[in-house]
Every structure is written in structure tokens, then in C-alpha cells.
């Protein structure tokens, strides 16, 4: 067993998987850049956590021989990034079902916090390069175990499946396979991009599965408390802030604290929005809206796209405005220019900056955008 775990934790299986998918390190290293279709590309070659401290010249080239796998796994890896969270989670709230969205956001925030903290407690390094080809640099500055991409993909896909299987009519097998395929693609993308060992990915998926099993019996109770308890807004703000300010300390800067604050901030703002909507009996999305002269399916698609387009525009505008405003206030308070990256990494700056910005995003997505949809006749 120890030998098996050692093999799964090593870099060689990752390198072999990359080679089998047509991703190879270039024979000659250097600082070249360009589109993958044009030849080798430069990416970080530093090993494990702390890669952001590597010199600028610490790069390697790689060659792609199978572009189907390249774009498939690059897309799959994006399903664990902010761009996916900030689009898919609000989409479910605006167009599918409030209760489904609430459950996914709560599970996602709990799973991600546990995963991020576990990384900085275990401090397992990422795969070595060489032999592994690294396609990302930012996350290479973090520790590896567990893979939070694997955790998030497993949590979101299976919580979505569990929350909808009794509310919507679709084959159980189809939903189960879809959840499995999505989570598997994201897990494999972490091997393809060279960001995790096999054990990191398996560990992340298993931890997420265990947390889902433990949380599922309490789903309805948690949901009821979030909607009805008078202490919900205070709890939703104070507890995440305490967790962020007491995040495990490292000897060097890592993006994990900032990413964790982003996730907990977004969940806090959304949770306050859920509670406020319930207190004031906000209108729910019925899906009954129809455009005269259009078939029902076409009309539904039009309304879905309109809701999403309006909503995501407002959410992105909120994020931009709040980032600028909060950073300006903190810069004035702590006497640093807005472009000072080192100052923005300090605890007293990073936590309020990220938390206020993304709690505003979560609140806007759940309260402001639905009111705007209602005014525009998109409910």
C-alpha cells in the first residue's frame, strides 16, 4: 500500500499521462512564446509551492501534438476557475432554481475552504518539472494536496445532480453520468496541466465525496436556517471573516488565502441575499414568461439569454467598481499606491479587499439582479 501511494504521489505518472495525450517538453529550453498551434510555448518550470519566487527566466517550452486533448483539458481546467463560478452559479439562480443554487453555493464554499486550508496544513509539493510540463504558473505557487479543482468539480456537479433529480424529469442515469463526466474531465485536466499528482486528484475527489455524504442529510435544515434565522446575516458575515483572518500562515505569500477569501466572501454576500429575499417574499423566477409571436421553447431561450446577459453585465460591473473603490479606500488608509502588488498581499489589505468586493458580487447576483430582471419584465 505504501508503495502504491508513493507511486501515485510521484511525478512520473503525471508525465506519462501528458505524453500519452500528446504533450511533450521541448528538447531545447528558452523564453519563446506564442500560440500553441504555432509551436512551443513558454511556461513555468519551477517545482511545487513557492514558484512565484522563481526568477523570470525560470521557464520551459512545450510541444502539443494532440490539440483535441489540449483544448479539451484547458477548457475543463477553466471549470474550476473564477470565470466558471461567477457565471454558472448565478446562472442557476436566475434561470433554474433558487433552492438548487443555494445548496450548491453552501456546499461549494464549505468544500473549498476545507480544501484550501488542507493544502497549507499538509504542505505537499506539486509535481516536479521536469519531467512534468507545467501549463500554469499562478496555482503553481500553492501546495498540491488536495486538488481543489477536483474537490470543486465533484462538489458542484454532484450537488447539482442530487438537488435536481427529484425536482426535474430527466433519466437518473443521464444525470449521474453527466456529473461523473464533468468531475472526471476536471480531475484529468489537473494531470494534463501538470498541476497535481494522481494522489492529489484522487484525494480531492474523495474528500469532496465524503463531505457531500455528510452534508446531504442536513441540507434542508441548513437551508431553512439560512432563510429564516434572524442571526443568518450576522453569522454569514462574521464567521467567514474570522476564518479568513485566521487562515494558516505560511513562510511566503501564496494565493490560497486570497482565493479562500474570495470564495467565502461571495458565499457570504449570496447568503445574506437569500435571507433578505425570503424575508421580503421576493418574486421567484417562474420560467412562464413568453414573448408574443415566438414558440414556447424559443421564447424560453430568449428569456434565459436575456436574464444571463443582463445579470452577468451587472455582476462584472459590480466587481470592477468594488475592486476600485475598496482598493482606493485601503490604499488611503494604509498609505500605498493602488498598483503596489506587495501591499495588496498583506493580511490587513487582502482580506477586506477580497471579502468586501466579492460579498458585494454575491449580494448583487442574488438581490440587485433579480430586482432588475423584475423591472425589465424578465421574471
From TrEMBL:
Q: Which SMART domains match?
A: acidPPc
Swiss-Prot/TrEMBL GO biological process terms: regulation of type B pancreatic cell proliferation; sphingosine metabolic process
Q: What is this protein called?
A: Sphingosine-1-phosphate phosphatase 2
**Encoding gene (name):** SGPP2
Q: Name one GO molecular function term.
A: sphingosine-1-phosphate phosphatase activity
Do the record's keywords include S-adenosyl-L-methionine?
no
PANTHER family recorded: SPHINGOSINE-1-PHOSPHATE PHOSPHATASE 2, SPHINGOSINE-1-PHOSPHATE PHOSPHOHYDROLASE
The record's section on SUPFAM superfamilies has: Acid phosphatase/Vanadium-dependent haloperoxidase
